[in-house]
Amino acid sequence: MGSLGVEGRMDLYGSTDMHSPAPDGAIVHKDDRKKQFLLSDSGITLSSVKTSRTEVTELSIPWRDMIGGELKQMSKSGKGDNPSESFLVIHYVQHKVKDRTLRPAKVKISANGDHVIDWIRRIREHCAKVSGRPKKVLTIINPISGNREGPQIFSKTMQPLFQLAGIHTTVICE
């Protein structure tokens, strides 16, 4: 999965004031192609910017499928002495139509750290408004079924997703 890089705010708003609120949308890059990133009342949309030679492609993530967003910091060279780059990682549920399964998926967007924090806050606000979304979950794990890996699978895979979604979990494993 490639990362997406945000173009400067000057292109969008004619201003370089980085202390203003993060925009609802931005032009980003993925695999050397421009994409439009948009936060709306219906969800998050990533769509290609129309050129004369390309078709418009779109990834729409409705709020009901959104797990959450997080800020990741990585140095540009992989070494600790260089300044770090901020990434917004959007986690969502991907629907596999062929076999009717749901899988966690993510999109990584490179952006200004202040904007990422504001976008994460707004993603959490929208996710909290989704009706039917639980705030607490009771999880019962059978520790001796299968290969006896139930507790490890839950703590490695599921618990981080619940934490990211802001869902408190109570785990019973006996």
UniProtKB/TrEMBL annotation:
Span of the signal peptide: none
GO molecular function: kinase activity
Superkingdom of origin organism: Eukaryota
Domain annotation DAGKc: ranges: 132-174
Protein name in UniProt: DAGKc domain-containing protein
